[in-house]
Amino acid sequence: MRNGLWKTCTGGFVAAVFCAVTVSQSFGADAKSLEEMEKELNALRASVSALTDQIESVKQDKTVASSSSATKNDVETLKNEVSTLKEEMKTAAQAQPALKAEDIAGNVYSEFAKKVKLGGQIKTRAEYANGLYQVPVSNGTLPGATGISNRYSSYDDDYVLNQTRLWADADVNEHLRLFIQLQDARTFGAEGSTVGYAYSNTENSIFDLHQGYFDLKKLFDLPLTVRVGRQEIIWGDHRVIGNFVWSNVGRVFDGGRFMWDTDEIHAEAFAARVDENGFIGKSATGGNWDSNENVYAAQLGLKKLVPGALLEFMYIQKNDQDGSSTNSTLVATGNVRANNNPGVVIHDVGARIDGKIPNIDAIDYTAEAHGQFGDYGDMTQRAWAFAGRAGYTFKEMNWKPRFGFEYDYSSGDDDPTDSTHGTFDNLYPTNHWQNNYGAIDLVSWQNMHDFRGNVKIQPTNKLTAQVDYHYYLLAEAKDGWYLANGSLATPRGSYDTGSSNLAQEVDLTVSYQLYKNVGILAGYSWFNPQSWMNANVADFDTNWFYLQTTVTF
């Protein structure tokens, strides 16, 4: 019996020692995986359990060999070995968490995974237009994609836009953040067929990297963040710098951005490349054309200088050296003579204040003004613009109605044949934002007066409705009428300038938050031409409907 007991215990002891040695070696090796270490630890536990069972078996045999001192010694030996193995297992278990975080940092089970936020959004919008028809931005090959589809007759069409976005936001540590956002933008059926693959020359869906950048935060332990990569940039009310969020594609900037933010001030500067076509040679007169478009901008925001308001100062340089396309476009539209300088370099200096009256927070106001100078082809750029809005919210009344008024002005060119270009350049805006110049997007901040009144109500916490009225005039009747994308709605020509009255517009917008992650937006707009449009463009109304759902997760 004694020999059998020794044989059994010795076999279990050898197996346990082997496991202990193996585990200690595995935890010291960098090449071991987490799964292998867990298997070895489980084997060690099994060995300890087997030895414990053997001890219990020996105890039960005491009645047979109770007087044997050798048996007692065997039991003591087994107990000591079990105690030793348990200590080894405890040490290995304590080392295991450190290995997870250090040696397997890229694994999805690591601590880094807790710092990554994943999200997405699906936005679907159905639209119907009757009158002056503009096609979706993401479908340049559809009829009418170059602007107004038919300037002298009404047009009917409907389409459905779909935008899908997926993103990952990773706070790697206190000094590094990464953000990646993919986007697919398409119009239902625009590929020609949804069976199989569309041909590249008729493809009307866009799948691209919408945003991809990294942030270096608290740089040099200062309140400074440097952001590099493809990114959205929004300033103020989107009037000169915006992400064009209403578009099915949107606007991003490829470049670098410096941001300084404290309780007192916010300052930033960025440089971005808008268009890269490479060097294209020399002009007929010997000038170099590099065909690139860049934007350089800086902003200083003072948070506490004006009580209850944010005061911002801005500088923007639009530097477009696209000699071939810019020059030909300028000549075709009458904005410039045949010239030796094809580039456009505009310096924009602006200021904006946004806030509420101290101690009367029911009154809100915003004012923004810009002046521009520089070169527009071979002409001198001299233009300016102003926008101001104010509103009063009756917070104690049911539905909390807000009544507001706004006036927007931007200069036009009073003489297209002279050496001065007076039309304000709208730069890189989101003109649709807050219905700045009408929801139907037929007017931009160029050569215009816009008188606007609106009423906004909130019947419930989830439901908001707003009605806007706009009356538009041209600042210069000799200049053209510009769409929200900045292009002339009609070719420049000998306009009938008997009147500057352009049009009037009514917008109804309703938003409803169905669930926490599901929002619904619907609207109707009516655009009615006035005397200038009737004489030079069209004398029929435009009606536009849309219904949009946005699901975010």
Automatic annotation (TrEMBL):
Top-level lineage group:
Bacteria
Q: What are the coiled-coil residue ranges? A: 34-95
Q: Name one Pfam family in it.
A: Alginate_exp
Show where the Alginate export domain sits. 154-529
Q: Which UniProt keywords apply?
A: Coiled coil
Q: Does the record's keyword annotation contain Coiled coil?
A: yes
From the record, give the transmembrane residue ranges.
Answer: none
The answer to keyword Iron-sulfur applying to this record is no
Q: Which InterPro entries match?
A: Alginate_export_dom (IPR025388), Alginate_Permeability_Chnl (IPR053728)
Query: What is this protein's record name?
Result: Alginate export domain-containing protein
Q: Which organism is it from?
A: Candidatus Brocadia sapporoensis
Q: What is the lineage of its organism?
A: Bacteria, Pseudomonadati, Planctomycetota, Candidatus Brocadiia, Candidatus Brocadiales
